[in-house]
Specification:
The chain is mainly beta. It has one helix at 113-116, and strands spanning 2-4, 7-9, 14-18, 22-30, 40-49, 55-56, 63-66, 70-73, 81-90, 94-104, 121-126. It is elongated. It comes from Menura novaehollandiae (superb lyrebird).
C-alpha cells in the first residue's frame, strides 16, 4: 500500500499537493508468502514523464526528500507488515511520478521483475492557495 498525504494511491489516482508544503509518504509492505523475506532496500525515485518515452530523473532542483529516499528492510515475517515513512517537498509546480522499487540490499543484482516495482504514483504539485 502507498499513501501520499494520507491518501491511498494506485495507478489511476492523481494526488494533488502544494509547492512548498512537505508531503507525507507512507509505503507498507505486506508479506503474503509462507516464508520471511529480506534483506532488501526500498527506494523511491521521483521522475517526470515527458510523454514521449523519456523519463527525467534529474529533479534535484524540483523535489527534495525530507529524510532519505532509501530504506533498509532486514526481513518481513509471513503475514506481517513493514511500514516506511518519509516526506517529499516539491519546489516547483508540475506533474511528477514516484518509481518505488524493492531490490536486494548490498547486492548489484535486482530481484525478479515481479518483486521490484510498484505502480507509479502520480503527484501534481500546484501553486499554494493564498
Amino acid at each position: 500500500d502507498i499513501l501520499v498525504d494520507g491518501k491511498l494511491c494506485d495507478c489511476d489516482i492523481v494526488v494533488t499537493c502544494q509547492v512548498g508544503d512537505p508531503v507525507p509518504l507512507e509505503v507498507k509492505l505486506t508479506n503474503w508468502s509462507k516464508h520471511s523475506v529480506g534483506p532488501f532496500a526500498l527506494t523511491v525515485m521521483p521522475y517526470q514523464d515527458y510523454q514521449n518515452g523519456v523519463h527525467n530523473y534529474d529533479l534535484q532542483d524540483a523535489i527534495t526528500f525530507v529524510g532519505s529516499n532509501t530504506f533498509h528492510i532486514d526481513s518481513v515475517k509471513p503475514t506481517k507488515d513493514s511500514v516506511y515513512f518519509g516526506a517529499l517537498l516539491f519546489l516547483y509546480t508540475g506533474d511528477f511520478y514516484l518509481n518505488i522499487k524493492f531490490h536486494e540490499d548490498n547486492c548489484s543484482r535486482e530481484l525478479p521483475v515481479s518483486w521490484l516495482c510498484l505502480p507509479s504514483v502520480h503527484i501534481r504539485a500546484t501553486e499554494p492557495v493564498v
